[in-house]
Amino acid sequence: MDTNALFKLTSGLFLLIAKTDKDNGCIINTVLQVTASPVQIVVVVNKKNYTHDMLKETGNFNVSVLSENAPMDIYKRFGYASGRDTDKFNGFNDISRSENGILYLTEYSNAFLSGKITEEKDLGTHTLFIADVTNAEIITEDTSVTYDYYQKNIKTASAPKTDGKKGFVCTVCGYIYEGNVLPEDFICPVCKHGAEAFKPL
Hints:
- By secondary structure, this protein is mainly beta.
- The protein has helices spanning 50-58, 72-79, 147-155, and strands at 14-19, 23-28, 31-36, 39-46, 60-66, 95-97, 103-105, 109-122, 126-138, 167-170, 176-178, 198-200.
């Protein structure tokens, strides 16, 4: 089976933000509208993400729809570090609070949606949350980024130079492991994905 075929499915990239005693957010690629009356969406979140735990605790969130002009720094800030030990919003000013008190992006995003969780389903490594949309606003008319666009234009442009190194590269964040053999239990020190996310240089 060629799991790369899954990358052909159309999906976007989004910044999911929650709030407890602190603000936190993570990059996700699964946000779908499922009903129009009432307006409901689903978000799917990896259980390893700190934002996942915050959603379970509070039941409320905002989703910022990332646009094609979002730089790689946005993906690094919100996708490559854990909110458990990092304040991802420290020194970041392109934000505002919506009516639910949760942050959303005012730049690099063309819209945001506020959600209140009504149901959840355990998917093993992830949780699927069904939520009523309580607020929604368009910020710009910029084109929403797709996962395909991100792979071909944003990630590729910022990929590190290999300079003839031998090793393996993380297909998620671009981290390079130097060596002839990648340990089966290797975890990327940057984005925390396992050896299955690496390919030979």
